[in-house]
Amino acid sequence: MKDLNNKVAFVTGGSKGIGYGVAAALSAMGVKVGITSRHLKEAEKAAKEITSKGKAEVIGIEADVRDFESQKKAIAQVTAKWGQLDVLVANAGVGHFGSIEDLTPQQWQQTIDTNLTGVFYSLKAAIPHLKKTNGYIFTISSLAGTNFFAGGSAYNASKFGVTGFTQAAMLDLRNYDIKVTTIMPGSVATHFNDHTPSEEDAWKIQSEDIGELVVDLLKMNQRALPSKIEIRPTKPPQK
Q1: Which of 36, 71, 74, 173 is the most exposed place for a label (fewest CB within 10 A)?
Q2: Which family does it belong to (predicted)?
């Protein structure tokens, strides 16, 4: 997609963090964007902020990635407004961390339903539209999608799943000229897991860095497909 002006994107979990950074970067390039959150006011507030700084309209939509019908309805809202869908960014995620002994069944279920099943639902709802535009799918996995750690059983399981799911989906869809890439960030300065970003997070990847990466990938020649990309801070603090 050499010219991104007037393309249309759908970003899950776009009211803050990585999703917000990606939506802002896309809007700055002239891409119209629908962002979702489970809380409509948060989605609309973020959409208004991004629109005021960007070059294309962003709309906020209430949707829950854990509900397939909710995802279909949200994408239908985007296509009804703008007539097409060119880019999907399956970003929404949660994190519950702790020993397997302490992890509750509810925390496990929420993590898997949001981080893994939610990605499946997002792709499933978007694919019919992306086949019409030879679109591009991005999933947001994590370095935790190939590197396990103590206290990460639910999160590791979900992100290992996203990584594997995305690579298989890439093979399924590339004959439709749909590109599929999973982005695997390390430490990112976001509100993830109730964290409040501060000056101490300056060494971390910033959400706008992921946005810049998405834009660069969209502009890449159609013949080239970076299917899995790891991105980490250049210089983390020494332990």
Answers
A1: 173
A2: Belongs to the short-chain dehydrogenases/reductases (SDR) family.
Q: Which residue has the tokens 């159609």?
A: 222
Q: 80-113, pLDDT tens digit by residue?
A: 999 999 999 999 999 999 999 999 999 999 999 9
Cα gap 18→237, rounded to integer Å: 22
Active site residue 176: no
Give the containing element (helix H, strand E) for 138.
Answer: strand 136-140
In angstroms, the CA 47 to CA 66 distance is 22
Domain regions of the chain by residue span: 8-231
CA 224 to chain centroid: 21
CA distances from 95 to 23, 44, 110, 128, 194 (A): 22, 24, 9, 30, 9
The domain defined by 8-231 folds into Rossmann fold (3.40.50)
Q: φ and ψ at 29, to 5 degrees? A: -95, 5
* DSSP secondary structure code for residue 66 in this structure: T
